[in-house]
Amino acid sequence: MTSFRDFEHERWQEAVETYAGFWAGLTRQTIRPLLDALEVSPETRLLDVSCGTGHVAAAAVSMGASVAGIDFSSVMLARARRLHPTLDFRLGDAEELEFPDESFDAVAINFGMLHFQHPERALAQAHRVLRPGGRAAFTVWAPPDQSRAFEVVYGSIRDYGTLEVPLPPGPPFFRFSDPEESRRILLETGFQEPRIESLRLTWRVPSAPALLRAFEEGTARTGPTLLAQRPEDLVRIRSAILERASGYEGDGGLEVPMVAVLCRGRKESGSCFADDS
Ligand SMILES: C[S@@+](CC[C@H](N)C(=O)[O-])C[C@H]1O[C@@H](n2cnc3c(N)ncnc32)[C@H](O)[C@@H]1O
User: Fold this and answer.
1) Over residues 47-53, mean pLDDT
2) Structural domains counted in the chain
3) Whether the CB of 56 sits within 6 Å of ligand 1
4) Closest ligand 1 atom, CA of 16?
């Protein structure tokens, strides 16, 4: 069977247009809190890990930071380079960063951790490339009872289909929604002062069919989970999704409450002897 990493890679090569069209407007809402958590200033050298179309990197540059972004999807990177032609975007894997030790002041991972095969390796790499005292922060989704778009879709699959589909096994999607688990992985990978907070967001989607399309074509695991259903079940699941989604209709489209979990930690500062020298 394909590895989870290869499965994710294949999906992200294909999902770019739909991701950029529907999801990026939502994931953009966490950029400011993420960069504030990293204390970004004009002196900051920031690495944007799993940068996607590069909107975190671009926001950091607008705050005066110097930035590099990496992503393993060449198609995502092509779009990032087209949108931000002067920025440094490189093809690379979050779990094997090709940067020297201690070369950044801050590492941002906006909605990447829930896509890595070995998220602890990605955090250990973030720790390695940070200078002593540097900061890392990542965002993930809170569970479906708070991030309601996931309840719309997973609730419909539960009602009319099955979540047991043969996808390559990967870490649980909502693993780091649990503050204790996020705190634990930050400490385990060498970070200090872990802090976890929730961010309330609103996903504005033009219509219920647009939300369905965002999931079917613009996600890594949820789309294949839908498309793996029996055809007769998929028909019922799709209409259940449309019905549930229409419950969030507001002025000019859907307004779906979503909650992001923002997690941060700091790499230990150098020893007092080093500081004194
Ligand atoms: C949900 S998107 C987030 C993109 C962007 N950070 C944002 O805020 O919109 C997840 C991104 O993670 C990238 N990705 C997933 N696994 C990766 C890995 N192992 N190494 C590098 N990038 C990875 C995907 O290609 C995709 O661009």
Assistant:
1) 97
2) 1
3) yes
4) 27
